[in-house]
Design goal:
Number of strands: 15
Helix content: 25-40%
Structural class: alpha/beta
Mean pLDDT: 89
Shape: globular
Number of helices: 11
Order of helices and strands: EHEHHEHEEEEHEHEHEEEEEEHHHH
Distance between the termini: 26 Å
Strand content: 15-25%
Oligomer: single chain
Low-confidence stretches: 1-5, 7-23
Length: 375
Amino acid sequence: MVKIRNVTLANAEEAVMPLRGSENSFTFVIRDDTDFVTTPIKARLLRVLSKKPTLKSEYAMASNDETLDAAIDRIVDRAYQKWMRHALYMLGRHIDADKYDLNPQRRNELSVHLYDADELTNSVIKKAHSAQFVKADDPAPYLISLDDMIPVSDELGGEISFSRLFSLCGTDYFDYTARPGHPAIHRQLDKVKADLNARFEQSGKSTPIVLLEDNVRHARMLNWLENLMDGHGLFNHAHLAGISTCFCSADDAELSKIVHKGHLAVPVAVGVNYLGVNADVQTPRDLMFDGFVVKIDGQKGRLPGIFMDVASRFSVSEPRSEAFKEDIRCINREFCADIRKDLGVNMPLSWFVGAKPVSHVTNTHVNTSMLKVMR
């Protein structure tokens, strides 16, 4: 069995940084995304089931006092957390041992550091306001989230939402593009620029900008973004004060390559540092509930990784790719079957983020049940 170890940010910060792994060990690092994944599914279930009050006795209610929405919360959370445990087990079972310098016979002997997403968000926002980035006479920092799971209120700042654009097979990637559901990148930059100009009119001072990120691995993407912001005039009345990130696996040499205006070093505040640890930050939900940005017939969408080259997109051994896909299809079907069993709803493909891309690559209608699609 995969050994799952829950690590809260609080006790991780008490450890000597960077974290240390035992010899020949491997660690999956993930944020608990249960709320992020299940909220839209719960909303759809509630809309459907609230129209059928006579079926409430079939919902496996915990007690007579449990409301319908509470029962849905409990059942969907339980099903997703079960799915997550199984997905992590499959990732460990089929891991590319050579890539991570592991003994192939010890694939299942790995740790999972599971972090509370809200706690991490609060930490990166708190660090963004620290003296490391903001001087005593500076205006309040303008926070820019680069990650959908790090929400920023309008009072604190905004977002620049972008992702790599991938080929349908997942082996090739192209330039960055706005994430599906978000305006074009230049429109997002326009909004941020307007906010910064308004702040300058009020204070007459340059506003410190702090980028909020989930994980810093390489300087390349961050420098691309800094150049884009500069070219768009975002630094006319502002400056890049730093980056606050949940995790970091980049070494000092790589971090030193992150620069502002071509030569100014950009400080990075790290929630949990995985430098020197045999670890990888993973997003298992991309196997079914989310996915990678692709373009089909001129329209962008998210294609779950189960329909792509899993060796390219995940830490899976190439010879074990097909076995891994079959294992994931199995647990995907099990998730849908659990919901059907406990709530009496056969969820259609249209309920899932990647509905249109999946419909295209599988030649199925979006009203087809997800249980059938995963067969």
